[in-house]
Amino acid sequence: METFQVAHLNIQNVNLVVIFLNTAFDSKSPQEQQTIHMTLQAAATSAGLAGNVVPVWLDPFGRTKFIAPPQQHPFFRSASYEQLYAQVNRTLTCP
pLDDT of the chain along its 95 residues, tens only? Predict the structure, then answer.
């Protein structure tokens, strides 16, 4: 079991479940990242967190990375990791 910091947000009437991952996520293959993303979405849904799960992490150079639907990219490109992390308001435990 692993516990993650989560910012459950509502941005312009869209629910987002922003889950903060460690830098190691950046070195995973696209398939591994997709599998982890789907696992996090299922865990968030089971925990009663409504909305799109958006994994967010820092790459080895300290740049913010994320996986989000294309229509949400402008928001995540404009927000810094620190701004997002300041919104943490719960945790999520995932198998």
Answer: 899 999 999 988 999 999 999 999 999 999 999 999 999 999 999 999 999 999 999 999 999 999 999 999 999 999 999 999 999 999 999 87
Is 54 a member of any domain?
yes
Sequence-ordered list of residues with C-beta below 8 angstroms from that of 17, at least 6 positions apart, any chain: 6, 7, 8, 44, 49, 50, 51, 52, 53, 54, 92
Residue 43 has which token pair? 């865990």
Residue 10 bridge partners (DSSP): 15
Is 9 domain-assigned? Answer: no
* pLDDT reported for residue 95: 76
What are the structure tokens assigned to 9, written together?
């947000």
SS3 47: coil
Tally of structural domains, the chain: 1
Domain membership of residue 54 as a residue range: 17-63
The answer to whether position 50 is within a domain reads yes
